[in-house]
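Consider a protein example.
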Amino acid sequence: MNKTMIQVAGLCKHFGDVEVLRNVSFTVSKGETIAVIGPSGSGKSTMLRCLINLEKSDNGTIDIEGKTLCKDGIYQSKKACRSICAKMGMVFQNFNLFPHISVINNLIYAPHFVKRQDKKELIVKAHEILAKVGLSDKENAMPNELSGGQKQRVAIARALMMNPDMLLFDEPTSSLDPQLTGEVLAVMKELAMEKMTMIIVTHEMAFAREVADRILFMGENSILADDVPEKIFQNPNEKIAGFINSII
């Protein structure tokens, strides 16, 4: 039986008077790829940000690899929260690269300065990961010299440098044109085949159908369906069918 990596129960979140998440509950097992789909404004990105402690939930419980990040909306200390979330990496829609340093320095910055890891060893590791994402020839490039797809692959490589047990992706291809989208999805597909635990918020329905082990469909600030891709796409309910038809 696979280890439970993430367990969420009754997650609730408001921004002022606006309800963003209502009673969100799900689990993620080791090696699973979960695609999160649904209309804009349904709470997908906020849910991810709550998992990695970039947003605080108002209520609910989040357990990460058996350690409680928050219980009934009450959080652990800042130090404990940082430790619990340290094994998660996040890849954002807008890359979030440091613009003033080269690609390889973007990769080694956090493990060197945050984890105090040896710089020479990190450079060797960075070369390996850049090869993995198809960017061996870009190690000395500056971010402004890269295409959007290359920037996002650097962002994925940077997340991998921290040895995460799981990766969270927040619409990683939404700002890319179709050709560049394919570059990024190919890297993510390879990670899925290697059984990296991943939660991917995406509007790429073909990718979600092919790669995900499970689909979470969010609407009305809650999870309205949690099932394997075949059942979500081949026999969708009215709300899911309406959403899929609206973006195809």
About this structure: The mean pLDDT is 94.
